[in-house]
Design brief:
The complex is a heterodimer. By secondary structure, chain A is α/β, with parallel strands linked by helices. Chain A has a single domain, classed as Rossmann fold, CATH 3.40.50.300. Chain A is built from 8 helices and 12 strands. In chain A, helix 5 links the parallel strand 7 and strand 8. The longest helix of chain A has 16 residues. Chain B is globular, with a radius of gyration of 21 Å. Chain B has one domain: ABC transporter involved in vitamin B12 uptake, BtuC (Orthogonal Bundle). By secondary structure, chain B is mainly alpha-helical. Chain B has 13 helices and no strands. The chains are: A alpha/beta, B mainly alpha.
Chain lengths: 317, 291
């Protein structure tokens, strides 16, 4: 959180995924995926239920072992990566309800765990980080309430604040807007926008771009475990002009596409400006429909009804 | 009442009840948070075999109970961690195996059922000086680890995946909680007995979470409920024992349950009030957020 864009600490990419295959019970859920994410990028990882997008993010955070290939964070192989405070993880579901009540402040404070050793009481730095994280998600006034008393959208923001409390440089979010109503989704987007402006790298798993569109730098689309698109989000006009039917490779000049070509040119640096002042860009962005299994007509971008219809991605990933 | 407190056996019993009442709900809180309320019960059943081995071999039943209960708890944790569908069934097998094995071995040892019953339902008033020291020492260990590692144990119980990503050694901590649960069971064995052990770990938590809004609050209030139930139950049973045979163990558990019965409606009332306040606030927040 403390890094600013343009800080001359460059060198290694934030996330480096090289030829990664992830198998769950013998079935390859992620197949031979390679990608790099550089500091400050706002990346959306899309795909239908069961496409492997959640599994890929879980592999990036070490929650899923890789069957082949390697994941590096900040240049260090995941197995040897100890600076856990540099990464923030926001899980798919608001699993924030244990059998015992917990206050918002307590859940957010548990995010400091990667910076606190055992038997070390919380210090001023911990309290300040918790207060700041609550401030960023706009829940400072609810700190003393029980988490389960909040709405789904607010609970999701609590989980984001928990990830932020460690002051991470990269934030992995697994469908944070699932089951969140539109006003609260917009509050969430405002939060993510503020983080992105501060230079935090964001990797967001989503069914559909929806309200996050103005923030996105880069779009990744997964289908059946493979990365089938990696490039700029397209404006709606571009999508219509291309008019690609499902399954047909979409070729738009200047785009970085990988359809049917898994020999990803690894180490490709994604070069385009990080203009975080998106206020002037009113045109909604979409990833190419021919390359994702996303149905754009589904109302409420991350609506839970979508999950119910499409089956639980969580079980497969 | 005052006369009773003059007896040395009563003073020993009070100390044991107080320390047990303070320590048991600490581990109980983590178990309840992880929705493992009955784990203490399972460990208690396994500890029966430990006690029986002590009776058979002539070693201290308290020590053999600690050992067997800790081994059983670690085995439970391994089974749970592997998370296969038969995990639930495997737990049941361990529970019944522990109880049946204990009764069988006690028989082999040529001991009467009455001897085992001391451990099954507690025998606070026959507790020895050595047992009091043992109880207090183990209770202090449970309190130190349970309270000192609260941030870590809370983070893991709250959200395992998040704790893994944050770099915590989740399996090691879970194993620690399992062993601490086994130790707690053995501490509480002398007070309320192995068959009611789980009650002293869980019922105070059930009562306090009706009233508290935070994890820390639940934990501390549960300790207060537990200590009150331990001491209160013992005094009630002592007072009543002039008229009838009232064992301290069941009296302690019933006092704890009475705490829950009182806390429940109080908590419901508090929650309803808070909800009324919140719906008012939420309407304002939604107005502010909506475009």
């Amino acid at each position: 959180m403390s890094r600013r864009p343009g800080t001359p600490e460059v060198t290694a990419p934030v996330v480096d995924v090289a030829d990664v295959t992830v198998a769950i019970e013998g079935r390859a859920v992620v197949r031979d995926v390679s990608l790099t994410i550089t500091a400050g990028e706002f990346v959306v990882l899309m795909g239908a239920n069961g496409s492997g997008k959640s599994t890929l993010v879980r592999a990036m955070t070490g929650l899923r072992p890789v069957a082949a290939g390697e994941v590096r964070l900040f240049g260090t192989p995941l197995a040897r990566f100890r600076r856990r405070d540099r990464i923030g993880y926001v899980p798919q579901r608001a699993g924030a309800s244990g059998g015992v009540p917990a206050s918002v402040a307590e859940v957010v404070a548990s995010g400091r765990i990667s910076r606190r050793g055992p038997f070390r009481p919380s210090g001023a730095a911990d309290r300040r980080a918790v207060a700041e994280a609550l401030d960023v998600v706009g829940l400072a006034d609810r700190a003393q309430e029980t988490v389960t008393a909040l709405s789904g959208g607010q609970q999701q923001r609590v989980l984001i604040a928990r990830a932020l409390a460690a002051e991470p440089e990269v934030l992995f979010l697994d469908e944070p807007t699932a089951g969140v109503d539109l006003p609260h989704q917009q509050a969430l987007v405002a939060t993510l926008g503020r983080l992105s402006e501060r230079g935090v790298t964001v990797v967001l798993v989503a069914h559909e771009i929806g309200v996050v569109a103005p923030l996105i730098d880069r779009c990744l689309v997964m289908r059946q475990g493979r990365l089938v698109y990696d490039g700029l989000p397209l404006s709606e006009a571009d999508v219509h002009r291309a008019g690609a039917p499902a399954g047909v490779p979409l070729v738009v000049p200047g785009l970085h596409t990988h359809v049917g070509d898994h020999a990803h040119d690894h180490g490709h640096q994604h070069e385009h400006g990080h203009h975080h002042d998106h206020a002037h860009e009113r045109a909604p962005h979409e990833c190419p429909p021919g390359h994702s299994d996303v149905v754009p007509d589904i109302a409420g971008p991350f609506d839970r009804t979508y999950d119910r219809r499409g089956g639980q991605e969580g079980s497969a990933s | 009442m005052i006369d009773l407190l003059g007896y040395e056996f009563m003073q020993r019993a009070l100390l044991a009840a107080l320390f047990t009442g303070l320590a048991a709900p600490v581990i109980g809180t983590y178990l309840v948070q992880r929705r493992l309320s009955l784990m203490g019960d399972g460990i208690g059943h396994i500890a029966v075999t430990g006690v029986a081995i002590g009776l058979l071999t002539g070693w201290s039943p308290t020590w053999t109970a600690v050992l067997v209960a800790a081994l059983g708890a670690m085995l439970l944790e391994v089974i749970r961690e592997r998370g296969n569908t038969s995990g639930d069934l495997a737990l049941a097998l361990l529970f019944y195996g522990g109880l049946a094995g204990g009764v069988l071995i006690t028989g082999l040892a040529g001991q009467s059922g009455a001897r085992l019953q001391q451990y099954l339902f507690g025998s606070l008033t026959t507790i020895s000086v050595a047992d009091v020291w043992f109880t207090m020492a183990l209770a202090v260990v449970v309190l130190a680890l349970g309270l000192g590692l609260r941030p870590q144990l809370f983070a893991i119980a709250q959200d395992r995946d998040f704790a893994v990503v944050a770099g915590l050694r989740v399996q090691a901590y879970n194993m620690l909680v399992a062993v601490l649960a086994a130790v707690t069971v053995t501490i509480a064995m002398r007070t309320v007995g192995l068959l009611l052990v789980s009650a002293l770990m869980v019922v105070p938590v059930a009562a306090s979470q009706q009233l508290a809004r935070s994890f820390r609050g639940t934990l501390l209030l549960a300790m207060a409920f537990g200590a009150t139930a331990g001491v209160g139950g013992l005094l009630v049973s002592a007072e009543l024992s002039f008229h009838a045979t009232v064992a301290p163990g069941p009296a302690i558990v019933l006092v704890a349950l009475a705490g829950f019965v009182l806390a429940w409606p109080t908590g419901a009332l508090l929650r309803r009030r808070a909800e009324a306040r919140r719906t008012g606030e939420d309407a304002l927040v939604d107005d502010a957020v909506a475009p």
